[in-house]
Design brief:
By secondary structure, this protein is an alpha/beta fold. Helix content is about 30%, strand content about 20%. The protein is elongated. Mean pLDDT is about 90; it is low at about 170-175.
Amino acid sequence: MKNKINVAFIYKPSDIFLAGNHFDNTTYYFFMEALKRNESLEISYFKEEHSMDILKIKDSVDAIIIPGNHSMNVPNLHGINESKIPVIARTGDFHNAKKYNTFQFHKKFKIDYYFNFMSSDYFYKFYPKDFKYKEIVFGVEPSLYENLIPFEDRIKDKILNSGAIGKNEFISKIANRILNPKSSGWYYYKLRTLCNELEYVVHTGMIKGKYVNDEYPKLLSRYKAAIAATTYYPTLKYLETTAAGCLTFMEITEENNGEYLGFKDYESSIFINEINYKDKFEEFLKNPNEDRWTNIAKKGTEHTLKNFNNDTAVESLVSLIKELI
C-alpha cells in the first residue's frame, strides 16, 4: 500500500505488559501484533529504558504512540517540546490518575490524545475536560478464540465467575472500609463477590497456579454460562467472556454505563444487577439446554468479534491518527 502512515511506538523494555509472557497479554497483542497487521501503518518500535531522542525521528514519523501516560511505561521523550509530531497515549485505569499523578505527564509527554476501552464519561470523571479522549475498545485477539469447546458440550449446571473479588471475612470488610474505602474488591466488584456466595457459581482466578492469558479463553469455553460484573465500568472480561462463546451474565447499570458496548438484554447477553441476579441465574439453570441460550450466546460472540477485535480497534486508531496529522 502506498503512502503508509509512519508511526513510532515508544516504550520501556521493562514494561512487563509488553513482554509477551505476562498473565495479562492484552496490551501486548494490541501493540506488538495487531498494529503490525494493519496495512495503513508502517510501525517502528523504539525500546528505550531511560530516554528517547525525538529529534532523531522528527522528519521520518507522522505520529507517536505510547503505551501509557506514566514514566512506568514510557522513557523520557527528549526534544518532544520541539517536535510537532502528535502523541497518542493509551491511558491506564482512570480512577488511579490522582494516585499516580498521571496529570504531570500530559505536558511532559506532550500528549495530544488519549484512548482506552472505557467510556468517555468515565474518563472525564477523573481527567480535565480539555484532555482529548477517544473510546477505542480493544482487547480481543481473534486467534485466541478459535477451536474452543462447542456450546452444547459445555458444563451446564454451574456458572463460571472469574477474576478479583472482595474478601468476605468480617475483619477484612471493616478494615477495607476504613483503610481502602474506594479501592477494595468489594468496592469495584461487589456484585461479582455476591455471586460467589451461590452454590452453583464456580470461581477461579488462576489456572493451575498460573494465570496465563492465552489459556483464559479455554477456561471460559468449558462453561455454557459465565459472569462479567464490575461496579463502575465494564472491564475486558465482558468482551473475553462473550468472545469465548459463553452466555454472559453481565452487570449493566446506570452506575457502570455499560450500555455503550452495545449488548442487548436477552439478545446478545443477559443483564444483571444486585436485585435480579439470582432470578436470572436460576432462569437459565432450570433449563440450560433451551435453544434461546444458544442463540443469545452466539449473538454475543458475533457482536464482540465483529466490533471489538484488535484489528477493528486498530482501524479506529488509524482514523484518529489521520485526524491529527
